[in-house]
Hints:
Chain A is an alpha/beta fold.
Amino acid sequence: MRKTVWSMCGMxxxxxxxxxxxxxxxxxxxxxxPHLIGRALCAKGSAGIALHTDSxxxxxxxxxxxxxxxxxxxxxxxxxxxxxxxDKLKKIMDKYGPEAVMLSCRGGPFLDIAKAxxxxxxxxxxxxxxxGCGRNVHHASKSIYGLGRxxxxxxIKNSKHLILFGRNILASLRIAEANQVxxxxxxxxxxTYVDVRQSLTGxxxxxxxxxxxxxxxxxxxxxxNEVLKKEAYDKEFLEKYATGFEALEEFIQPYTAEWAAKxxxxxxxxxxxxxxxxxxxxxxxxxxxxxxxxxxxxxxxASRALQILxxxxxxxxxxxxxxFPKTPGDCGVKGLQSLDALVPKPKxxxxxxxxxxxxxFDKGPGLFHxxxxxxxxxxxxxxxxxxxxxxxxxxCFPDPAAQKEALENAELLVSIDTHYSExxxxxxxxxxxxxxxxxxxxxxxxxxxxxxxxxxxxCVEPRFDTKPSWEIFKQLADRLxxxxxxxxxxxxxxxxxxxxxxxxxxxxxxxKGYIELTDKPIMYDxxxxxxxxxxxxxxxxxxxxxxxxxxxxxxxxxxxxPPKGRFRLIFGRSPVHAHGHTINNPLLHELxxxxxxxxxxxxxxKLGIKEGDWVDVIADSQKGIIRAHVTEFIHPxxxxxxxxxxxxxxxxxxxxHAGMSDQKLQEGLLQKMDxxxxxxxxxxxxxxxxxxxxxxxxxxxx
Amino acid sequence: xxxxxxxxxxxxxxxxxxxxxxxxxxxxxxVGPLLCEITHEPLxxxxxxxKTEFHFRSCYHCEEPFCVDICPTKAMIKRxxxxxxxxxxxxxxxxxxxxxxxxxIPQLNPETGKAVKCDYCMDRIDAGLKxxxxxxxxxHALKFVTMQEI
Lengths: 702, 150
């Protein structure tokens, strides 16, 4: 008899809702939740079964025996591994104080327990991957609206025009969102795509601007200028809700459409026609502010300019525009109880300086890369233990060699993950988490037009001696004397406790996998007071930035042109892989075994490179080798590759040395931070390209 | 007369290759055989936007399938509703079917040593469901069409 388990996909960070059919402890079928996404699932989602049956993942706790990264592991029991970690942590905390322990993660909704753990120890040093991802977007949004980047959501389905600056929305693939985009296009909507190359998203666009790498900000400024010139904006909305418009009018004057077209290498008529079009479509026009925007030195300001365009469109809390995500409170339901809220806030300042040295950044997760400074130098105080929970800093941040050097000063490195990460392989202890189909998680709130509670449920028992993270943190907490913050012994007790104030029970998840808090989408009639800036208004001139001595509107600086023979290294993603952690999946590896280097056709001809040739990609001391993909649809200043490849973990036989790693070539970028946005500038690396001498020329064998 | 076909709305297809994996996991196939496939042509600029069309191919379920005629053990069978399928009990894995098929559609499952091919997930169809690729298509671009005589 097959039974249905409602759960949540875990192949990438989107976490699409799924329905799993299980028979005799085996997974027979996974599909998208029919109530929410009409059974749809992507390639990664289906390949979850292959992850479950794959044995090339950590199968029991491991303690390092040889040198770091040597791959000499001693398999131990959970009892021994947790004792070992707790003992080491105790020694470090006794000697340096609890703040010498830091915990990082890859963001997401399930972090309440991890936060409670690190704060419960008395350390303020909780952080995540985001300075190598969306921090610029987050801070840009905060500086304008006082709301984080998830403080507004996009009603793409009902919009008339979606504008994407390099946001490869159909390859990044949130199933519900991708369907909204396709529905919008089918209904006759427009999509403008801006990138240095053509992508899976761009081929569906109605307009394509191929810009010179690093000029996104220029294009956005040109758009603002033209919008103001043509008075193609919502005056009433601006007067009512925004401050700083006069300063914008003054600032934008030199950045005409003509100037922008020249700077970006596009046609001015196309830009003017674009503004004419959006004028007829607003407020149902959405300028996507970007997602992974740790790219250029002015990405923060590019995202800010895109948000200013949203404000000019007057698209907030409008059908087909940006919406406020509604909370349980909007449905008259109390929110979930939080474990972290039980813990007294650690008094010590953060070691990354966020909140003290950097007052304009969000204190929540701070900025991971700044911790490397603290680890290396011991200032403001020593950091001696790093716990990475489902996070691989060597894959997500640039220059792993520089990271390893800083970590020489760390006495304990722990990886809690379902697979071998590059960091895990280098660490001292691997505490293997059960993969997503073998574990359950906390209940979470999903805000939106129709907010709901949902969770991940265990579909099958773990194949190996692994544990869910809630159990790992709970058992560590018990050993470290902070059990009082973890008032549960089983997951059911935890769920019950979380739901206590809401009046719901976890058995309700059995019906559809989620608890719906309203049957109709909620819209606010009045948005007064919804902006959380110091002035309570939309701040085109941000008081927070100005106070930090940073400009709200930054004069444009043209990006450097790469010297002859060198190219800007750009990276992106494919719908088949979720960065580094699916490369070794048997079925996804079969689909996309290694990445290629996109190179402009004219450039390739000059360099004597043909489709499929091996090319050397040379940074400062690092060199990669990869096959060329020659195409006319990439800007000649750039070369492009899919991120996540070039893994060096021998136990991942499929991914081992398959393709090339971009982050290993990003030498010198680990501390190259946008001072206003806090994001790293990962596309600010020039590399030399040459046809590799490893291309076979002669055959001397029989 | 074939009763069914799978139709791809190329405008909705985003080239995510989900269907290929949906098919493989439903049929419990190892690395190797691929029973359906998304392909596309090289990009070409249309009104300033580089574009391409996606194509879906599984099995044509021919009216007079060569694979059925050539099978020495009568393991390749055409059903009344047109579905051409492999009876794996009878299949000896000689792969004559693949040689006879103009497109080489039947493939060897290296784990079972038998031929496999698209059968529109006939166990699902018989249970009133749709093929795996159609059911789970990421953007609902694949449609399972039941043809009617007029």
